[in-house]
Design brief:
- This protein has 553 residues and is an alpha/beta fold.
- Helices cover 56% and strands 17% of the residues.
- Among the domains are: 178 residues, 3-Layer(aba) Sandwich (Rossmann fold), CATH 3.40.50; 138 residues, no CATH class.
- The strands form three sheets. The chain has a six-stranded antiparallel beta sheet, covered by helices on one side. It has a six-stranded mixed beta sheet with strand order 8-12-13-3-14-15.
- The radius of gyration is 44 Å and the shape is elongated.
- Keywords: ATP-binding, Coiled coil, DNA damage, DNA repair, Nucleotide-binding.
């Protein structure tokens, strides 16, 4: 239940706090006093989007906070699934900054509006006079039936199987299109694959060939340079090795006289050995370097093929050509094995369709079991609120053979007649505004009892009713409040008098501002408020007496 609502810096409200009763809470006040503002603030913590900027002080942020007692509503799983800290006394907060940015919190953990809305739908059902428009929609009518039937689990199972069937069917159709298209392109795919396969592509081949190509193209220069370097080291009169060996002998000759020369002689010897190895390797490389025009021609032809294939297929490397070849091979394999794949997908569609149809039939059966009970219960409530001749009939008809949709395999229609001799028709065609409000009250009452919502809010659904009918509507709300929290905004004294707690919304002028405020009325205040609702600002003694009688019930 909603325990406390705290509003700060919203519209005409600077700051106020409302502590609600667990039973029937009545909210009254003159038109424009701020009742809709309070409902607007409440809607923000239920996940609705903030429409525009509504700040009492545009330089400060707006904060709406609701404290809920949720210990008996089996919501632990919801908190676990959304990684939220659970508490029997849960606080929901919404903050809107002056720049329009909005943040939402559940027990101080930031959440998205989607999560906030999902929790709000499990805590409060808001019914306004405009909600009567919902009654003629299939979504709402199925919601009513499923709530009473307790078939939300069946509905969820059906929806999952229905979407699984739709997905499988889509995959089958897409595969058929792919096979059809692939069959047309098969010859082209095969030609491309054969060409790439015949090329016997090898990863990194191109780089190695390009290195070989450069070596063969410059073989003469390489041999000339290697020969020249080798001669400079050891094959001429002034060869480096000969001179170095002579230098080494000169230094070794004085090593016995000059100790420092011994180390230099050792270093010269190491250098001589290293250079001799270099000379040998230069000579070996020169011998291995061949001027091979035949090999160069083969390499040029191979590279030309690789370059041509890359240009043709708009890629930049042999690796990409290999990937293209493998992709073509996969496509050809898929085409050649499409019959087996097609058969598998068709079997999968048939199997998923069977599951969806089974779930749809179970859902339909559960719905049919409660249709008569819903009609009778609604008619009983309507009789209590001044419509003794009202009739409600719910038609649940199967769709065309094999047809299914997200809601199941049935269509639904609520038919209504308010008077004797009047034919049953769609509700919106035959019911007046006041009748629609009472029909909606009857249906909402039944849904509220079966779905066990913590709180239901009736926002001015007393449109078009008065007198004894209003008294009966108040009794229905009072009956509902025995099992759940009910918050009702009303302009009718007969309904207001039924509340266990009564709050008055009013405006007051302070300095240069008009402020909306709310106060919980004591018994004397309630008598005065209801008397004013009966006869005006200055109630007569008769109105005061009448108010006392209404409060005594």
């Amino acid at each position: 239940m909603l325990d406390t609502l705290h509003i700060r810096n919203y519209a005409l409200i600077n700051e106020l706090e409302i502590q609600f009763d667990k039973g029937l809470n009545m909210i009254t006040g003159e038109t424009g006093a701020g009742k809709s503002i309070i409902m607007g603030a409440l809607s923000l913590i239920l996940g609705n989007r903030a429409e525009g900027k509504h700040f009492f002080d545009p330089t400060k942020k707006c904060v709406i906070e609701g404290e809920f007692k949720i210990g008996s509503y089996q919501l632990l799983r919801f908190f676990e699934e959304n990684d939220l800290d659970y508490a029997d006394h849960t606080i929901i907060r919404r903050e809107i900054s002056p720049d329009g940015k909005s943040r939402a919190f559940i027990n101080d953990s930031p959440v998205t509006l989607a999560i906030l809305k999902a929790l709000g739908e499990q805590l409060i059902d808001v019914h306004s006079q405009h909600a009567t428009l919902q009654i003629n929609t299939e979504d709402f009518q199925f919601l009513v039936v499923d709530s009473v039937a307790g078939s939300f689990g069946l509905k969820q199972s059906y929806r999952e199987s229905f979407f699984a069937y739709k997905k499988a069917k889509k995959e089958l159709e897409e595969f058929k299109d792919l096979v059809k298209k692939a069959a047309i392109e098969q010859d082209y795919f095969q030609f491309q694959f054969d060409e790439l396969d015949a090329a016997r592509l090898v990863a990194d081949e191109q780089g190695q060939l390009e290195v070989q190509q450069r070596q063969l193209e410059n073989a003469e220069d390489i041999k000339r340079a290697l020969t020249g370097a080798s001669h400079l080291l050891e094959n001429e009169d002034t060869a480096v090795l000969s001179r170095l060996k002579e230098t080494m002998s000169q230094v070794e000759g004085i090593a016995s006289f000059l100790p420092e020369a011994a180390d230099l002689a050792t270093r010269l010897k190491s250098t001589w050995i290293e250079l001799k190895d270099v000379a040998a390797e230069l000579s070996s490389l020169e011998e291995d370097t061949q001027i091979d025009e035949g090999t160069l021609l083969e390499i040029n032809e191979r590279l030309s093929l690789l370059y041509s294939l890359q240009k043709k297929h708009h890629v930049d490397s042999v690796d990409e050509l290999i990937k293209l070849r493998d992709d073509l091979e996969s496509k050809l394999f898929a085409i050649n094995s499409s019959d087996e794949q097609l058969e598998r997908l068709e079997k999968e569609v048939v199997a998923k369709l069977a599951i969806a149809q089974k779930n749809a039939k179970e859902l339909s059966a559960a719905r049919r079991k409660v249709l008569e009970m819903i009609a009778k219960d609604a008619q009983a409530t309507l009789s209590n609120v001044g419509m003794p001749n009202a009739r409600l009939q719910i038609n649940l008809e199967p769709l065309k053979e094999g047809d299914m949709r997200e809601s199941g395999m049935d269509s639904i229609q609520f038919l209504f007649s308010a008077n004797k001799g009047q034919a049953l028709q769609s509700i919106h065609k035959v019911a007046s505004g006041g009748e629609l409000s009472r029909v909606m009250l009857a249906i909402k009452s039944l849904v509220a009892k079966t779905s066990a919502l913590p709180t239901i809010i009736f926002d001015e659904i007393d449109t078009g009713i008065s007198g004894e009918v209003a008294l009966r509507v108040g009794e229905v709300m009072e009956s509902l409040a025995e099992n759940m929290q009910v918050i009702a905004i009303s302009h009718l004294p007969q309904i207001a008098a039924k509340g266990a707690a009564h709050y008055k919304v009013y405006k007051e002028d302070k300095a240069n501002r008009t402020i909306s405020n709310i106060v919980r009325l004591d018994q004397e205040g309630r008598v005065k408020e209801i008397a004013q609702m009966l006869s005006g600002t200055n109630p007569t003694d008769a109105a005061l007496e009448h108010a006392e009688l209404l409060l005594k019930g």
